[in-house]
Amino acid sequence: MSALEITGLRRVYQRKRGDPLEALRGIDLVVPEGEVHGLLGPNGAGKTTLCKIVSTVLLPTSGTVRVLGHDVVTDTAGVKSSLGIVFGGDKGAYDRLTARQNLTFWASVYGITGTRRRRRVGELLERVGLAERAEEVVGGFSRGMKQRLHLARGLVSDPGVLILDEPTVGMDPVAARDFRALVGELRGGGTTILMTTHDMAEAAALSDRVSLIDQGRLVMTETPETVGDLVSAYERVDARGVPERVREQLAVLPGVVSVTGTGGGLTRVETEAPEATLAVQRALVDAEVRDVSLSRPTLEEVYLHLVGGRGMGVDP
Ligand SMILES: Nc1ncnc2c1ncn2[C@@H]1O[C@H](COP(=O)(O)OP(=O)(O)O)[C@@H](O)[C@H]1O
Ligand SMILES: [Mg+2]
Fold first, then answer.
1. What are the CB-based long-range contacts (under 8 Å, 24+) for 117-125?
2. The pTM is what?
3. Is residue 295 very low, low, confident or very high in pLDDT (cuts 50, 70, 90)?
4. 235-295 has which CATH code?
5. To pair with 252 at 20 to 30 A between CA atoms, which of 62, 145, 231, 242?
């Protein structure tokens, strides 16, 4: 059995003003048990909408979603007992209660009581590295500590599937690294994890497979290595004072994706292979253009190339 089975999933938001907004436009995705699946996409891509539907917070407009065999529409109780959810941000914990009291409360919500509850809460505090701070009120916790508490909360029912929606958003780099290490420890423990992020490095570090989502569509599902290669293959050469004749030469070099800008001002050349970047630089040197700099496009820009390049079309 698959941990997640998503077929033809669409979600339309009816807005008070303006046209209905189609946030998910037909998503198909199967995640086998035990996989850590990264859902990578820019803001507004539909990641949170997908997480909310999987965790029964939001109903699909059409299509089906099954979590460990349970349908999110017809068997919400089954789904809820199969998964844990951790959303980003620091809302949700009771600031005036201690870490242990918060977890004890959440365990009660799941019907865990008595000695079992005490043991489970102790284990989880240990597991997320909060054992020494367990008796402190959560109001004084850093963002990273709060998020570790949220992770413990997501694990309280020992779920088969864990949904992490931008779990490190707003954290400082050290806290984010610690949090990723923690998620890394859950890998291989049998828990299936669906983790959204707009951070390529985060997705690559943790995931067995990564799906790119853009404007409500899955652009591709690949191993992080493949996605990383695709993204890092794209480069950008900016140059000033490139004569029109040279611009025309650059445009027809193999591996050059686009040449934009004006002859007098900034010319931007985008390439999709390191050899192409070298060829562009060589041509610029030959033309005695001195003002040249290299950069990488953002992930979002690469998405656009990939979406366009695969002819999947983006509705306006
Ligand atoms: N409650 C809502 N009502 C109307 N539109 C929404 C609502 N929630 C999200 N959207 C829109 O749906 C799209 C997808 O949003 P979201 O799922 O939050 O994307 P992501 O998590 O990838 O940033 C966006 O265009 C967003 O503005
Ligand atoms: Mg989101």
1. 120/156, 124/152, 124/155, 124/156, 125/99, 125/100, 125/152
2. 0.80
3. confident
4. 3.30.70.330
5. 231
